[in-house]
Amino acid sequence: MFGSSDLLELVCNTGLLRRKAIEKVAKEFFLAPIDVEILSFLYNYPHAVTATDIEKQRAIKKNTISIHVENLVQMGFLERGDKRDDRRKVVLTLSDKAKSIAARCQKEYDGLARRLVEGLTEDEKEVQRHCLEVVSANAQKMIKEGGEK
Questions:
Q1: Alpha-carbon separation of residue 86 from 65, 66, 82, 90, 104 (angstroms)
Q2: Residue 59: exposed, middle, or buried by beta-carbon count in 10 A (0-12, 13-18, 19+)?
Q3: pLDDT band at 148, cuts 50/70/90?
Q4: Which long-range contacts (CB under 8 A, 24 or more apart) does 41-48 make?
Q5: Sign of the CA dihedral 87, 56, 117, 28?
Q6: Residue 87 CA from chain centroid, whole number
Q7: Domain 4-116 carries which CATH code?
Q8: Ranges of each domain in the chain
Q9: CA 128 to CA 123: how far, in whole Å?
């Protein structure tokens, strides 16, 4: 049986594999892994456009994000703008130059995802997709509720 420890180990292992993919892309483009993490996050979640959004989703300290965002702006990978409904918030958008790096990272993620499901039939992959959607929805619900019950 796949228990809670197994689930947590799977999460840790996939997180480790994800970090290795980020490090590979970072090395390829001569960037810090956190820079690639930020670019990838904004590429995959274009609706999450502030440093606070990155902080909440990636559990990176705000001051660390600020330093790296500033560097990414200076290098021409990110652009800052005002949020339409709240000019006090700064919106971050990817430059075209950054999109190619983020797309490269996405290619690594896609390869990782394909390898993780090797050996599963199409029916098993469909069940897996459904199960992960339910687990993801439950995780989002728990986060909104403030943690576990």
A1: 21, 19, 7, 9, 32
A2: exposed
A3: low
A4: 42/78, 42/92, 42/93, 42/94, 42/98, 42/102, 43/94, 43/98, 43/99, 43/102, 43/103, 43/105, 43/106, 44/102, 44/106
A5: positive
A6: 26
A7: 1.10.10.10
A8: 4-116, 117-149
A9: 9
Helix, strand, coil % over all residues of the chain, rounded to 5: 70, 10, 20
What tokens appear for 99 in the block?
């999109």
Tokens of 33: 């892994």
CA angle 72, 92, 105 (to 5 degrees): 60
Structure tokens at 59: 């559990």
Write the DSSP symbol of residue 60: -
Least confident piece of the model among 45-49, 63-67, 128-132: 45-49
Q: Which tens digit of pLDDT belongs to each residue from 74-102? A: 999 998 886 666 666 778 889 999 999 99
SS3 2: coil
